[in-house]
Design goal:
Helix content: 25-40%
Largest sheet: 6 strands, mixed
Order of helices and strands: EHEEEHEHEHEHEHEHHEHEH
Distance between the termini: 30 Å
Radius of gyration: 20 Å
Length: about 250
């Protein structure tokens, strides 16, 4: 029995290794495909900081960041995974939030309160084409000027790998891990197209957040578990809860 990871590449392999270390067999079906978007940096623009909500934004700019002036700016990142990607890209001052975009917003606001940031200096937001929250708008409401630059897009996969469909039919999948609302929707469409929607939704669906879990519940999944915080360790804890043997009713 295997756990199905729907996270995009290359992060899906990191997740697979972590699951194997915990004794799980793993199948992978990346439901979103990463595509960089042409990036044009305005050399005349002056920024006070950079904000990033996904490591993909930094992957997309790998060829642009060498010796870039942006590396000298403080970078505010969602979570340690994105922060690690920022350090690897060459940013020296990286501040990571614990949680989602809301936690990142609060971290930026705290930076302004402590004089680490000046509201008079625009913030550069390196973003994806599809945003789950209006971080720029929320910061704007608090007096910041945010310049959003789209650096990548995530394209839904039209189908599941053949071996994954076969595994659903053979009842060889014990749970599915979901990392975003978009990837969850793509999974549902792909499962429907592959004729395995009923088999797939009968299994435990473990989600990185309550918002992602709502997508699966709305689709008819009955065994949906959400992580208590939007990080992978909490998601693995949700997986462990979902797979706990259920107590038999007393006779």
């Amino acid at each position: 029995m295997a756990v199905l990871v729907t996270r995009p590449s290359p992060d899906d392999e990191t997740t697979a290794k972590a699951l194997r270390a915990r004794g799980f067999d793993v199948l992978r079906a990346p439901m979103l495909r990463f595509e960089p978007v042409s990036f044009q940096d305005d050399a005349d623009a002056t920024y006070g900081a950079v904000i990033v909500t996904s490591a993909n934004a930094l992957r997309a700019l790998a060829s642009h960041l060498a010796d870039s002036r942006l590396l000298r700016l403080p970078l505010f990142a969602v979570g340690e995974n994105t922060a690690a990607a920022a350090r690897e890209a060459g940013f020296a001052e990286v501040i990571a939030s614990k949680g989602d975009a809301g936690a990142l917003r609060d971290l930026v606001l705290a930076g302004a309160k402590s004089k680490q940031l000046k509201k008079s200096s625009p913030i550069l937001y390196l973003a994806g084409a599809d945003l789950a929250s209006d971080l720029a708008g929320e910061l704007g409401e608090n007096g910041f000027t945010v310049v959003t630059q789209t650096t990548y897009r995530m394209v839904p996969a039209p189908s599941l790998p053949r071996e994954v469909c076969d595994a659903f039919v053979a009842h060889e999948v014990e749970a599915v891990l979901h990392y975003s609302r978009r990837s969850a929707r793509a999974f549902l469409e792909a499962a429907r197209a592959g004729g395995v929607e009923i088999s797939a939704l009968a299994l435990p669906q473990c989600c990185i957040s309550a918002a992602v879990a709502a997508v699966l519940r709305e689709a008819g999944a009955s065994q949906v578990t959400a992580a208590t915080s939007p990080d992978e360790n909490a998601l693995f804890e949700a997986l462990a809860r979902a797979l706990q043997p259920r107590a038999k009713p007393s006779s």
